[in-house]
Amino acid sequence: METSSTEPIRPNPDNLLRAIAADADTCARGDNERRGRLKIFFGYAAGVGKTYAMLEAAHAAKEHGRDVVVGYIEPHTRPDTLALLDGLEQLPVREIPYKGITLREFDVDAALARKPGLILVDELAHTNAPGSRHAKRYRDVEELLHAGIDVFTTVNVQHLESPNDKVSATTEVVVQERIPDRIFDYAASVELVDLDPDDLVERLEGGKIYGAERAETALANFFSKKNLAYLRELALRRTADRLNRNLERGLGRAAGDAGDDVLVHVSPSAGNATVIRAAARLAAAYHGTLTALVVEPVDDQKPSKEDARALHANVELAEELGAHVVTVYGDDLALQIAQYALSGTISKIVIGSSENSRKRTLPFLPPRESVGSRLAKLSCTADVVVIADRHEARPTSSRPLTARFKPTRTDFAAAFLALVGATALGLLLHEAGLASSTVLAVYLMAVLLGSLKADSFFYSILVSPLAVVLFNYFFQMPRFTLTAYGLNYPFTFAFLFVTSMVVSSLTIRMRHEAQMNARKAYRTEVLLETEHRLQEANGVDSILSTTAEQVIKLLRTTVVIYQVSPSGRLLDPIPFASGNPDEDVTMTSLVGDDERAVAAWVAGNNKRAGKGTGTLMNTRCLYLPIRGKDTVVGVAGIVLADEDLDAFEKNLLLVMLDECGQAVERERSAEDAHRIRLKAEQESLRANLLRSISHDLRTPLTSISGDASILLSSADVLTDEKKRAIYTDIYEDALWLVNLVENLLVVTRLDNGTMTLKTEPELVEDVIREAFHHLNRKAALHDVRVEVDDPLLMAQMDGRLIMQVIINLVNNAVTYTPEGSRITVSARRAERGQQPGSVGLVAVSVADDGPGIAPADRTEIFTMFYKGKNVGSDARRGMGLGLALCKSIVEIHGGTIAVDALPERERTSPDRPGTVITFTLPAVEYEADHAEAEQRAAAVAAGAYDEGGGA
């Protein structure tokens, strides 16, 4: 019956149920893995009602069935606010002793253990007490959100990072507790809590915010009407900006609107933080990316601890504001910035006014051109923006004179050897009658060679005037005096002095630049080598160890690697020692419980922690997550010295760890695909087995039931000969079923991976003759022989399984050869081992002189379910399992199996090439008491062992 195309087709109920179950699983998984939502109650000053509004919203949420818990509320003296805590569950605070007082802090562990649907955490910008897990409370909130807990919190506009400079300039109060703007911008919702400044002042004067004495001080300072009006305007504007940005993210950017990328120079200058914030605001306004450029000098002088600490803080600020940090090397600040800007898509270059000032190289020289002016000339495609930072600069690219000209022992040694060598060689040349110009060239060459070993520019200042003095003293008339006559002498001395100074200075600078370029090239080479080695690594363990070795190459520090299993469990750590004798660490201290706890936190939260971060800082290592596409696949612990990693090293390290994570994820994906393929093959094997069993069992079972029916119904009329024939048929069919079941059991054990070998030394001839007891009865119609030259020949085997191999091979020969064929089972020592202590292999062969196997079919006979073409009546019932099982059993013994034709000299007929199937087993050297073996060999010779149908 045909169905009309317009007739509705009824859905399959089973398919509907499966779809509903899949949707339910997806929803459940989404609920478990979802990230919590953050709602910020936003104000412009204390007392506007943020906490009050948050508590009211919490009560409303509780009335709607939400599981609401108060995690932390700042203790107030405001009765109306405190009254709203009634009816809400409150977590106990964490008390931390500090300098003789007890500080009350939010207990993030208690919150994670309770795991409510919604938690209230007041004062988002709060700085936690020393000893807390995180340095800042907003990081506590991020951990709660990562755990899937919704959070209500409060913050004022002056605690945002980007407007901090404007706030401090207007209110003359520097706010120390700040949060990154990304926390505010990416919150799920922001509720502006607004109050007229006059009403706020009235509340303050009425004692509803602070006590009378503190309120008076606040009104005279921060809570002036001017400040409050400015902060309120700033809060309103910042809320509106957030709405606009969310609208743009929701609608998407217009095609081709790439925005203007901003480049900011990061230095240790105290005012550089102001410049970075201004650049971040500029990048946000122009919808572009922010790049923070660190310009490191090429000399070997390390910055002071104060400068290094300030640079690290400014780099962290840039990263918090969303900047990509890049490090370049050079002594010309303007040139390095301009070259990087030209190599990218930079539209705006931001520098500080303190860095833009004109400086003097030396006191007696005119000041150099300002950095801004040079940038304007060098970077023709970018606008230069100079921000007033109101601080004196300490730029990284310009070391003080005391650092750049600090003498070293190497400088003195190089100057001494250069001058002494030039003077000695000059005296020899002078005595040989050469002109003084030749000696002058010798001095220049000596100065140049010495500069190749000098450390600082002090060498140039030292060697240049001394070269002039020595040249005058030893080679100018009158000799051996400092007096010089002639109009050309001052020009000669000036030439020698200037040339020596310039040549040596340029050589030293070029050598420093070459050393820096070599270090940079080495680091880049390590990165490229890492990518190549990760492609060659096999297995997750190999990938992680390769990464650790490459990190050690890059940083020359000890590394600890933790693997995270696909289920999220942190595995045992593997430390990799750097071999650096300057490291004061022990492996035990790096894998202690405290260090493991930090690594577990990193694995669970997908954020860095440990030394040099704001989370769990009291550790020996910096812990970084090794990320795949969606999950953390490992954790790397990097042992840090007192100084932090520079920006260039950090970027390379992060790239290496990202490559490692991707490689681990690819490896695991390949393993999953392999498991899926094996499972599919197993399912296919099961299906084929079921099909074969259902077809092949029918014939013998039908024959057995038919024969039994005949015996039951007609036993009285059957002759004894006929009965014997029926009994024989039943026996043979039952024996065939037994062999089939044996093979099926072996197949099942191999398929499930439950096959366990119980190997021990066995006499090969004993196993062969025992197998003959279980051969097909039709073997008696063939000439079955055993040929074992050495009755003491032994092999390492599981005798039960190898006996099954021999039974299958001989029965196969019986099935595929005509009656009267010769079948020979032989064993011999195949070869001696090449290594000391190795005794080689034992080769067991089953040969027949039947019609043989075509060469094209010899590669297929060990394939599951393959049946030969020379099929007799008995072979038609075969499932094609026997030889495939033989191959599997031999291979798990560590041997091989092969098939070939009989050698021509052993063939009984030219048209019967025959077949030889040979498998190998590990041999065993017999070294025990020979008495028992000789007795067993004599028994075999006397016929004590029945050959079970053999001739």
Q: What is this structure, in a nutshell?
A:
The chain is α/β, with parallel strands linked by helices. It contains 29 helices and 25 strands.
Protein architecture, described:
The chain has 951 residues and is of the alpha/beta class. It is 48% helix and 15% strand. The protein is built from 29 helices and 25 strands. Strands 19, 20, 21, 22, 23, 24 and 25 form a 7-stranded mixed β-sheet that branches. A 6-stranded parallel β-sheet has the order 3-2-6-7-1-8, sandwiched between helices. Helix 16 (409-431) packs antiparallel against helix 17 and helix 20 packs antiparallel against helix 23. The protein is flat, with a radius of gyration of 44 Å. The relative contact order is 0.04.
Helicity, as a percent range: 40-55%
From the spread of the alpha carbons, the general shape counts as flat
Compute the number of helices. 29
Radius of gyration: 44 Å
Strand content: 5-15%
Poorly predicted regions are 1-13, 15-32, 392-401, 833-837, 871-876, 944-951
Largest sheet: 7 strands, mixed
Query: What is the distance, rounded to the nearest whole angstrom, between the alpha carbons of the first and last residues?
Result: 69 Å
Structural class: alpha/beta
Mean pLDDT: 80
Record field, number of beta strands: 25
